[in-house]
Amino acid sequence: MSGPVTRSDVEPTAVSAVGGSPVVEITDSREAEVAGLRVRRALPRRTRRTVGAWCFVDHMGPVPVTEDGGVDVAPHPHVGLQTVTWLVSGEAVHRDSLGTEQVIRPGQLNLMTAGQGIAHSEESTQRYRGDLHGVQLWVAQPEATRHGAPSFEHHAELPRLDLGDGEATVLVGALAGASSTARRDTDHLGVDLVVGRGAVVVPLRVEYEHAVVVLEGAIEVEGRPVVPGRLAYLGTGRDELTVAAGDAARLLLIGGVPFPEPVVMWWNFVARSRDEVADARAAWEAESERFGAVPSGLPRIPAPALPWGRQPPAGT
Question: Is the dihedral of CA 42, 44, 46, 48 positive or negative?
Answer without folding.
Answer: positive
